[in-house]
TrEMBL record:
Entry-linked InterPro entries: ABC_transp_permease (IPR001851), LivM-like (IPR043428)
Keywords assigned by UniProt, alphabetized: Cell membrane, Membrane, Transmembrane, Transmembrane helix
GO MF annotation: an example: branched-chain amino acid transmembrane transporter activity
Protein name: Branched-chain amino acid ABC transporter permease
Lineage: Bacteria, Pseudomonadati, Pseudomonadota, Alphaproteobacteria, Hyphomicrobiales
Bilayer-spanning residue ranges: 56-74, 80-105, 155-176, 203-228, 240-267, 279-298
CDD domains in the cross-refs: TM_PBP1_LivM_like
A GO CC term assigned to this protein in UniProt: plasma membrane
Primary localization: membrane
Compartment(s) of residence: Cell membrane
Bilayer topology annotation: Multi-pass membrane protein
């Protein structure tokens, strides 16, 4: 089976599992499934960015653009339908990423990580300081859910919407991954100098991955805002950013199943220890360190095996 089909099966199976789980699960589990579905969109879009060889720390701040776009555009004087506002939020997030890509993609490795962290923090401060537009630290409340839902207050119907968006974005990212552009992006991620030497426009492809990955973050932000009914700077927190990064580290980013399984593992830990939530970040951190050490050990063993069999 091709990698493209495996990725399609992964997102379709996940979408179906969320809907089935929503029908048979309790009200509490229904909420867990909704949050898992929206965070899955975040990790899949984040994986797209990692394929170009950089790990951004601005993903959650860019997600905030989607949330605030829905909050502003779905209210007077714009009064856009919520679903249209969610799509617009994704486009605004992609536009911001396009503007940000020029300075941050001049950097590499740790400097890329630090520059995106600085950009994300600057964006979060903008959400706080521009009170007339964003509501400051209080944020914007009373955000409606999409009118397309027969019963907007139904969490089950919202879960079905999240599952549908997850599958559609999954198909989009899987198609990108299997396309000529997607293969070149991964080649740039593996060896940028070598890719450039054979005529590949490395900067443009890295920017493309950053922009399209940010589009998914904006869509997820719009869904978070309309599900919670409010968006505020407190939603843009380091804990969620760490969760997205940790899911990709623990599960790997080679295929879609990696970050999804990583997210599932982190969510199980979060639920097991939900009565002592202060321990959850520490436990996540321990498993991230173990995953990094194991990855280094496995790469070393693989290199030795290749040398012996060369």
């Amino acid at each position: 089976m091709s990698a493209f089909r495996r990725d399609l099966m992964t997102v379709c199976a996940l979408g179906a599992a969320l809907v089935v789980g929503g029908f048979v699960g309790s009200n509490y589990m229904l909420g867990v499934f909704v949050l898992f579905g929206m965070t899955s969109i975040l990790v899949l879009s984040y994986r797209t960015i990692t394929t170009m060889g950089g790990w951004s720390f601005a993903h959650i701040a860019i997600m905030g653009i989607g949330g605030y776009s829905v909050a502003i555009l779905s209210k007077p004087p714009f009064d856009l339908p919520v679903l249209v506002a969610i799509v617009a939020g994704g486009l605004f997030a992609a536009l911001f990423a396009a503007l940000l890509s020029y300075p941050v993609l001049q950097t590499r490795q740790y400097y890329f990580f630090l520059s995106t962290f600085a950009a994300g923090e600057a964006l979060r401060q903008c959400f706080i300081q521009f009170r007339e537009i964003t509501g400051g630290t209080s944020g914007i409340a009373f955000i409606e859910r999409p009118e397309i839902l027969p019963n907007p207050s139904s969490t089950l119907e919202f879960l079905c919407l999240v599952a549908a968006v997850l599958v559609l974005l999954g198909i989009f990212y899987a198609s990108l991954d299997a396309s000529d552009a997607g293969l070149k992006i991964k080649a740039v991620g593996e060896d940028e100098a070598l890719s450039s030497s054979i005529g590949i426009d490395a900067w443009a492809l890295r920017a493309l991955a950053f922009i399209l990955g940010s589009f998914g973050a904006g869509i997820a932000g719009g869904l978070f805002a309309t599900y919670n009914g409010i968006v505020s700077p407190s939603d843009i927190n380091a804990m969620l950013m760490f969760k997205v990064v940790a899911a990709c580290v623990i599960g790997g980013t080679t295929r879609f199943s990696g970050p999804i399984l990583g997210l599932l593992f982190l969510t199980l830990i979060e639920e097991i220890f939900r009565f002592v939530p202060e321990f959850v970040p520490m436990i996540w951190g321990v498993f991230v360190i173990i995953a990094i050490l194991f990855g280094q050990w496995a790469r070393g063993r693989l290199m030795v095996w290749r040398i012996k069999n060369a």
